[in-house]
Each structure stands twice: as C-alpha cells, then as structure tokens.
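Most newcomers find our protein records easier to grasp once they have seen one. Sequence and backbone structure share a record, each on its own labelled line. Nothing more is needed to start thinking about how sequence determines fold. As an example, a complete record with its sequence and its structure tokens follows.
=====
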Amino acid sequence: MMAKNKEPRPPSYAVSVVGLSGTEKDKGNCGVGKSCLCNRFVRSKADEYYPEHTSVLSTIDFGGRVVNNDHFLYWGDVTQSGEDGIECRIHVIEQTEFIDDQTFLPHRSTNLQPYIKRAAASKLQSAEKLMYICTDQLGLEQDFEQKQMPEGKLSIDGFLLCIDVSQGCNRKFDDQLKFVNNLYIQLSKSKKPIIIAATKCDECVDHYLREVQAFASNKKNLVVVETSARFNVNVETCFTALVQMMDKTRGKPKIIPYLDAYKTQRQLVVTATDKFEKLVQTVRDYHATWKTVSNKLKNHPDYEEYINLEGTKKAKNTFSKHIEQLKQEHIRKRKEEYINALPRALNTLLSNLDEIEHLSWSEALKLIEKRPDFQSCFVVLEKTPWDETDHIDKVNDRRIPFDLLTTLEAEKVYQNHVQHLISEKRRVEMKEKFKKTLEKIQFISPGQPWEEVICFVMEDEAFKYITDADSKEVYGRHQREIVEKAKEEFQEMLFEHSELFYDLDLNATPSSDKMSEIHAVLSEEPRYKALQKLAPDRESLLLKHIGFVYHPTKETCLSGQNCMDIKVEQLLANSLLQLDHGRSNLYHDSANIDKVNLFILGKDGLAQELANEIRTQSTDDEYALDGKIYELDLRPVDAKSPYLLTQLWTSTFKPHGCFCVFNSIESLNFIGECIAKIRAEASQIRRDKYMANLPFTLILANQRDSVSKNLPILRHQGQQLANKLQCPFVDVPAGTYPRKFNETQIKQALRGVLEAVKHHFDVVSPVPTIKDLSEADLRIVMCAMCGDPFSVDLILSPFLDSHSCSAAQAGQNNSLMLDKIIGEKRRRIQITILSYHSSIGVRKDELVHGYILVYSAKRKASMGMLRAFLSEVQDTIPVQLVAVTDSQADFFENEAIKELMTEGEHIATEITAKFTALYSLSQYHRQTEVFTLFFSDVLEKKNMIESSYMSDSTRETTHTSEDVFSRSPRGSSLDYNYPDSEDDAEGPPPYSPIGDDVRLLPTPSDRSKYRLDLEGNEYPIHSTPLNCHDHERNHKVPPPIKPKPLVPRTNVKKLDPNLLKTIEAGIGKNPRKQPSRVPAAPPEDIDQSDNYAEPIDTIFKHKGFADDIYAVPDDSQNRVIKVRNSIVINAQGDEENGFSDRMSKSHGERRPSKYKYKSKTLFSKAKSYYRRTHSDASDDEAFTTSKTKRKGRHRGSEEDPLLSPVETWKGGIDNPAITSDQELDDKKMKKKTHKGKEDKKKKKAKAFNPPIRRNWESNYFGMPLQDLVTLEKPIPLFVEKCVQFIEDTGLCTEGLYRVSGNKTDQDNIQKQFDQDHDISLESMEVTVNAVAGALKAFFADLPDPLIPYSLHQELLETSKILDRTERLHELKEIVKKFHPVNYDVFKYVITHLNRVSQQYKTNFMTADNLSICFWPTLMRPDFENREFLSTTKIHQSVIETFIQQCQFFFYNGEIVETPNPVACQPPPSNTVQMVEPMVPLQLPPPLQPQLIQPQLPADPLGII
C-alpha cells in the first residue's frame, strides 16, 4: 500500500558529451566546444557561463577531487520538463583528455585505454568525484559549490557527439571528421542513442556544416543539431532531442535550424535589453553607483531576466553608459544655464555702452575681472576645464566659471550684448522723444484711450521707430503721470473747498441733498472736469475724501506719511525726553515706598562686595533709614556680564535705581560705557522709556590697601562723569575706614534714589483738577494742515528753541510744555500740535483755551482748511493765525502768496484775532515771543472760557473718549448719565446708535477708543459726542473737576423715533427671543411730525422675535454671546433743541457763537456755496434754511439717505465708503406704506433685477457659471485664487467677510484678472478684506444666484421641519438637486466658509456671522418682495446650517453638534402685535462693533 501511494521519482538519464580531444597536435589550439556546451546547458545564466575551459592541468589538479585522476568531468544534473509536462533529470558527463602541463602528454590514469574506447564506455565510476564548475575551481574546491557524482558511478544512456564546424585553430576539418567517424563507430557499438551537436555555429563554415549533415545522413537515425554555446542557441534542444530518443514514450524530437533559433534567441535578448534599459533610465542621478542601483533592482523581473541572458558585466556596462549620458546632459544644461545667465552678468558689469562699444572680447574680459562685483557673477576655478571639476555639482552656486568665457558661445553673447546696448540706447532715446511729443499734445486728457490719440502721432518719427508695445507703454506712462497729477489736483481742489465738507458732524453720513450740493459746486471746477473720463475714479476719490472727513485718523490720512500728526510725533520723540507711562504704573502707589529694588553695577566683584556690605548693615534685608524701615531687593551684576541688559529690567524685577561702584580709572570708564549702553539700548528698542532715565548713582570705593595717591584723581573724574550723566556722586567720606564702603555712603546713595522716586511720582501722578493737571495753566492747540510745504520743525521752532520747553506728560506724544512769565507770574502752557483733521475732535469735545492756526501762504487748500475749521470755533476762544512762507519778499513778488496772506490777516482783523508770519529763511520770527501777546490774551479770557465750557457741560452728556489731554485715572467713573436731550442721546452711528447708556461698544479700557474706518480697520477716536448740532459744540472734554450729579428727567416716555430707526439699523439683524420689559406707547402719544417715525415703527415686535447684532465668541468662557436689541420709547414730544433752549434761558446768559458769524469772509464763503445749489432762494432764506437743516441733521431724519445714489446696487458691493443702511431700507418701506407725508413723492415699485456693479466690460465677470469651468477644473479660477489667498494670508483676520474692503482695490483685482488670468494676488499687495469683497462680488455678478431660485421654496419648507436629523437629511437631498456646476462651486465655497468659522476665536466670524454676510450673495434675494423679507432669517439660518454641517452635506461625515440646533421657526401669522421685519440689504451688512460687551450695564432710569 505504501509503495503504491509513494509518488514516482522522475526518470534520470546520464548523457556523455564526447568529441575530438587530445594533445594540441591532435585537436589544434582549441577544443571543439564540449565544455562550453556542457557549461551552457547545466548553468545557463550568463554570469555562470565560462567561455574558457582548459584541458592542460598540473598533476596536483589532475589528482584533485574534481578531476579525480579521471579523463572525464562530472558537470552535474539538470531537471527538465518536457512539452508533455513530465520531468526528468539529466546528468552530464564530459569525456576529454587532460594534458600534463609539464610533459604536454596525457596524464596517466587507471584507465589506460585510448580516448575513442574510453569515450564509448557506458559505465563510469569515480568515488567522491566532485561536480566541475570552472577551471578556477581546481585547487580551491572549498570556495565553490561541492556536489558529488551520485553513488560515485553512472550508467551512460546516450551520447552527444560534438563536431566543431568553425574555422578551427590549426586543425584540419577532414582530420576531425575522420576522428569523429572512428568515434561514432565505437559509440554505435554501445547501442545507445547518439545526437551530433554541430558546435560553434556562430562562426560556422558552410561546407563544414554540409559535410557534417552529409555524414549524418549516411547513418541511421543520426540527427544533427546546430548549436552555439556563446549565444545559447539550440543548446537545450540537443539535450532534449537526445532524451526524446532515449525515452521512446516521448515524441519525435523537433530540430530547429540554427538561423531560426538564433533569431528567436536574439529577440529574447533584445526584448530583455529594452526592458532593462528602461529600468536603468529611471535612475536620474548621475552620482548613483552600480552597487546601490543593483541592490534596489535585484528583485525586479526585468532586471533578473537581463542578468540571466546577458550577465552582470553587460548590465553594468549599460548602466555606466547611462550614467555617463546623465552626466553629459547635466554638464550641457549647466553650460546652457551659464550661457543664458551671461547676458545678465554682462548687463551688471558692462552696462555702460560708451565704455565697451569698441572693446574686443579679450579686452572686455580684462575689464570684467577688475569690476568690484566680479566675484558675485563669476568664479575662477583652480582646475580647468570647469566641466571636469566638482563645480558641476555645485548647483546652488550660480556663478559662471570664468574659463567658460573663452568659448565661442560666450564671445557671441558679448557681441550680442553690445548690439543690444546700442539698439536699447536708440530705443530709449526714441521713447523719450515720443514721450515729449505726447506732452506737447494739449488735448490728451486723463483716461483718454490710446486709440483716440494714435491718429495724431502716426507721422511722428519716434512713433515709427518704436514698437507698438513701446508706444503703448510710453502712452500708459504718460497717462499715469497726467492721471496722477489730475488726481492730486482734484484732491487739492477738495481741500480748497473744505467748507463744503466740514459742516457736518464726525461719523455722520451725508444726505443726498448734501451730495448734490457737493457735486454742484465741484462740477464748475476745471479740475473736476479734467477727470470726466475717469468718473468712477473721481467718484472714488470724492467718497474717499468724504470718508476721511467724517472718519479722520492719522492712519487714514490722505497725505500718508506726510500727515502732520505723524511728523509731529516723530519730531517731538527725537527732540524731547519723553517720560514713559509705564513708570506711572510702577510708582502710582509709591508715595510711601516700603520696598526699594536696587541694581548694583560694578567691575571685578565690586558690585557683590557692595551688596554684601549693604546686607551686613541690614536685618533680614530690611534697612533702617531716617526712622523708616525699607525692604531692599539687591541685584548685583558684574559690568562685564554679557547678560547685563537682560538682567537689568525683567517682569519680576523693576529697579528704582542703580548703584554704580568704581575704584579705578579703568572701572570708572567701564561704568560710564555701560550706562551709555543701557540708555542707548533702552531708547533704541523702546522697550521701556523709563529705562533711559533710570536713576544712577556713582559710588567711589575706599582705597584701603594702598596709599591713596589716586584718590583725588578718581574723585575728580567721578564728579566729571556724574555731571555728564546728570546723576549724583557719592564720595569717600573724610577719615580712615577699614572697609571699602561705609554706612554714610550707603545712606547717602539710598536717599538719592528715594528722592528720585518721589520726584518721578510727583511728575507722573495726575490729579483731578484743571489747575493742577500736569501743572498746566493754559492749554493751547496748534493746528496745521497735512502736506503743507514747510517742515514741522519750522512751526515748532519758537517752542523747541526755547530754554523753557520741556516734555509733556507721558503718553502725550504730540504735546510739549512751556514755562513762560505772563503778567506777573510764571505760567505753564501745554502746547498740543495736531493736524486739522485731528483737531476737529478737540474743537468739539475738549477744553481748549486758545488755538494757533497755521497755514501755508503757498497753498490755497491750507487756507480753505483753516477757514472750515475756524468757522466752527466758538468766538470766546482766542485765536492766533500764522502764515508760513519762505521770506518776506514772497509777499511782494508772488500775487498768490500775497492774496493768501492778506486774506489771513483780514480774517484775523474781522474776528479780533492775532496774526503773524513765520519765514523759513529767517530766524527772527522763530522766537517764542511772537506768541507772547496771544498767550496774554488767552490768560485774560481763561476764566470766561472755562466758565463757558463748564456751563455747556451741564447741558450735554459727557461721553467716554480718548482725550488729547490726559485725565486722571482716578476720576473715571462707571456711572452713566442719561442724556439730557434726544440730540445727545444719539451716539456715534452706526456703532452705538443708542449712545453709551446701553454700552454696545466695549468699555473705555478696552475698545471704546477705536472705531472702524472706511476699510473696516480700527482707529483711535478723539471724541464721543459725534452727532451734536453744530451750534451746540462747545469744545468739551470730561472736565478734570468734581463730577457733576446726575440730572434726573421726569415724564420720560419716548425717544426720538428717528433714533429708534437708527437703533434698529445698527443692531437689528436676527430675530431672537427677548422679553419685553416696557409696554408699547399708545398710538395717540406718538408725534406725527416729519421728524418722527411712523407709529408702526414704535410698536414692539412679538416677544418671540427681537433683533440682534453679530454674535461674537467670548474667549474666556468659549461661548457665543449675542447682544440683543432693547427698544427704548420716549413718549415726551420735546423739540430737538428744546432742552438746550431751556437751559440757556434758565441760566440767563448768551451762549457762545461761532467765528463764522463774526467774519464776513467766513460767512460769505459758506453762503456762496449755498447759493450755487439754492439759486431760487434769497441769501437770508438760503442761509436760514441751511441752519434749519443742520439743526435737524440726524441719521434718522428723512433727508439722510446713504452716501450713494438712491439705488443701493449702484454703490457697489462692499464699497468702503458706501455701506448698506437699515435706515434707507426703512425709508423705502415707509414710502410704500405711509401716505400722510408732506411733499413726498411716491416711487413706483420696480421689478427686481440683478445688480450691475461693474462699470467696465468683462468677458469673465458676469458670465454664466457654466462658461467659466471645465470638467478638469470645476471651480472658477478666480474663485480658487481668492480662496487660496485668503486661506494662506488672512484666515485669522478679524471680521473677515464682515469688514468691508476697499472698493477700488476690489475693482482693480477684477480688472487685473480680466487682463491676465495668471496674475498673482500676492503681487498686487491688496488687503485680505479687498480680496474677500472681490470674491463676494464675483458671485453677486453672476446672471443667476449660486443657489437656484427654483430651490428657495423647498429650502424654506424644509427648514420648518422640527426634527433636526430629518431636516438635515432633507436639506442634503435638496443640495443634490443643484446643477452639477453649481454643486461643485457651492461645495467649494461652503467648505471654505467652514474653515473660516473654525478660526472664530481670532477672526470672530462664527458660522452665524458668516451666514449673515453671505446668504444674500449666494441666494440673491428680492428685497422689494415683502413676502421674502419675512423669511430672511430662515434663509440665513439655512446657510448657517450648511456651514456648520459641511462635512455631513458634502463629505458623508457625521452630524456636528451645534450650540443651538433648534430649527428656525417661521414667523407667526399673527402680526397685530409686531412690526413686519424689514431687513436691509446685507451686501455687506452695516459696520458693526468688532467686540461686543457680554452684558449690558444697568439702566439708571429703568426705562430699558
């Protein structure tokens, strides 16, 4: 059973390979190829094939185990599978004749038969005979594989007779054939199968092969196989054919002719070679080695196949050739790079045509070597040529090898360079000539297209010479110059007409009437008409100017770095030693110092010695001085310490003083250098200004170890250094002391520090009274216009050149103090130097005793600004006018200067003011005495001015503001006074529309000092009561006097309804729950005058709905806080100015007037502007009407629309100066519903049309979305660029997508993209907000909204589903209905907004805030449709849901838990108790406070 189950062993055959053998005489110089044939069959791999096998052996080798004293070799066995799949094992024996290398005769063996008989033997026996591999194996058998012949014996089953058909080596073929014939006869006797192998057929002689075939044909069953061991052709075939003859069960052998077999074999080799070469070509580094590459490729089938067929040597050669090609290619590229870089190098070193025009290349090379920049462009190598050095590997070294310049290519580059310079010189000359031609053509106006001008220059010589591109470039440059000049002149014109703009309050919004008035006046100016073809730019400049007028800061000043505020701060910072405000914090409570921090500086251990001495005299670090105990914290530091500056002032150790100890000239000098370094470092890095004035004390150590010969010198040098440093010097007291320091010295030094600290405290500690405040008796403001053609130090020289000039309080970077004797006493005068735009806030809100108004006599705009400012100054305040010009001669030589100086003197005469002139070329008028009379006049009127100021302060609410003049921190109060009138109650819209009582804005300690400019940036403000009437502005500042008690108001029933609308516009956004605490006023209590809102506007909304503003995350508690709207109703129908009138009457005194009513020049100027736009009225009527209008100028008034055309779309999206306003939309709604308004024309409702915001033609913007995308790029390129820019540079920008970007920048971004789609936004240097606005504008310009109108109703219905999970899944199904193009873009945008919302802690843009900004852009609502207005909050919440659940909708993510996942309910159908929501257009939403207080302060009167 076991025998049956055992698998049969494959059959085994022994084949004996025989052929001509013997001595050289018998076989010639080489054998017939028996060994090569056996080698190739047994070990077919190319690396295992050895072409040389010698039969001449030494006696030792012959007797080794491989030969084993036999004349045959055992080659091993091969397992072979036949075509029928049957395996067999073939043992290969080679019969040969080994020759002694000494006698050159056959070795003697046990079998002494001749070769023919031996070769025919069928039984072979040789004990422990090892397998033969190669000749090198002999004698080194242990180094090769050792395999014994099985059982030491074999029975031969067939013979392979080898016949060499090549030319042979000194051998006659006939002799070989004769030998073969005899051998065949002997073999045939064994009755074993025989196959003839025609060897070396690759060198075949045709007639030899034919003779062999003829020989075989005469024999029975004798087959000839044509073989080549070298190329491995038919080697396996001959053995396989023999096995088939031995095994009768196998089929008849199939013999393939040599040529056919050779072609097949070569095809295999070629295929393998191609694959291997492709494999090698993957190596791109010519530094790669064969060892490294072969290890990586050894398991690759293509590599193994090639190695088996061709061998490692050929593979390595192929690899080496490839590496050499890579290297040569690298050298070629480097050379090409060098040649391409050579023109740039020549442009750098040989850019002067006159210098090289006639130089040969060799002469130019010598000149190049002498250039100082030679080393930066070229490198001189020690070894040449450069391509045979390691320089080819220095890819980061872009310098050109100098020996490369000797080539013909380099010389040709030089010649081209010279020719280029010649042609470029000519081209530049022609371009400049053409530029001058353009300058002579007078009719070219700013913005005129090139096509309109080209016909006039067709015959110009320069135009014909230069290219079209050059001519357009020159014309573009000319246009830029004239446009820039025209814009500058236009801006100057706006300043000249300052009275047009500066008659409104700060932060107000000009009405449409006001805008019409402005355009009517300016349209008469040639400088206005000059920009006729650039109307959008002109309008942008005008709006920018208006925006600056009503939001003036030094950061947004139109003069840029020439802003007067910036230049004054820089000059005073360099001229005066400012005291640091941080010092007041350090010493604020230091009137009675208990702890003193001392820094001890010394050299060679002196600092430590002094510290030890002080501690010796102390008890537990407590030191008794003058009856008081002080705790001392000592910090000794060696002067050589590299960490001197870092140890001097740390967060935990702030020194009150520094002891500097010395005992030699060397240490004294070292100490002096250290002190200078400390002061310079502190001043330079501005780490702490107080450090520059840290109290130093020089202490001389006692010379106890030697005779004090040097003591007088040290004492003298120390005193000199102390005088230089303005610090005390502590000398060694008289007498003899055993120690270096004594108690007297230490006490003296400590007293000096305490006195310095006390002095600092007295200087920086503010007190809450006017008289003692900074010790200033008078507070004067000097005003100058930004950009005036004179230096700041000229107008400040009368003060800075005075010996009595000193620094003002810490933090007042634009002020200085003067000590002058006025009258009989010395007075301290605080001079604050401001620009006119900064002075406006001071004029309205600060206590100022006098104004010095400076203007340039060379500039009409400077005088215009002075007139505009002076017109609104109270006539009780003294004024000094100062005209600035170069010299007195200007008055007589220049009519324009004479006119302006005369006008200034005339105005001064009219208002009884002082007038003087400053001349830049004269020193006489720069003395302080020029203002002495003015100061005296101010001093005389001081009491009247303060009385007037305090009187006005009792009539108006004091708002927290950032004062130009410092106030006592102790005087600040958290109490809030209820406004005395509706006028005062109106805060600065649109930031705090209900005033400071509700504290929508942050407290003064954090962000009340900032507002948003036109770009949405924050800037510090100087005044808070920004919307008071002009005749009520009384220069108030929270007075540094005892706070006044609150003025109670009785019968408070309602607020001005216009103010109520402002409240709704400012904070009314999203319906939220807000319990109503104040009942609605009855309709009969509502005043129906034009100045008041409709009764419906005063009715409270349903308790389930209130308006809120943006949600702002609270970082401290990581939650979202929303400030809700509380409606305040005032039912008292007081007139707007009624309270002020009553106050005036009750006090029985005349309220101060303004200078414009005292000066005919100022008054007539304002009246002349009014006449131009109200020509149908008389002068008196016109001016009276103007005053009446000014009196009622509220943000909530009917005649106060947006600063834009009536259509909100025309203002553009995210216009920096035009923002959407709740008030305008309220008016639109009221005009539709209210029919009792007097003199109001009803406007017919228009069909809803998409906005058209562009004023230029575009082939990209405004196109259908499908035209802008492809299957490969499903996102519009512009959208991709904007999103990428925002996410790379501004993802954390505060107020992203909420704060408006610059409208001009937005348009420029789109225009530039229109011209070049590959433009880089980074290179345009635009703000993130501008890019965000341009992105929103892209979607707003689409013909159809991104979210199709057809799906709006479905989204609305789905949002009503109460179950949150069901609602989200339904929304997901609706999104799938989007057009594929819309879906891809919507997914991209929502994913981006989700990333923005994830940064809400820094950008304050939650998903809620982003949805408020983006939903109108994505859905394109029809705000004329009242039905749609009632669902705006629901649509906004849908977009918020998409942003929050982005992963769920588009990426199959999980549903995210949100803070308030409650579905937005539709508004209830009962509208009796609520006003229908009127939501303004949110493109963008009105400017909002960037930080919201988490809670509202308690209302003092309980009306909220």
Notes: The chain is about 40% helix and 10% strand. The two ends are 110 Å apart (CA to CA).
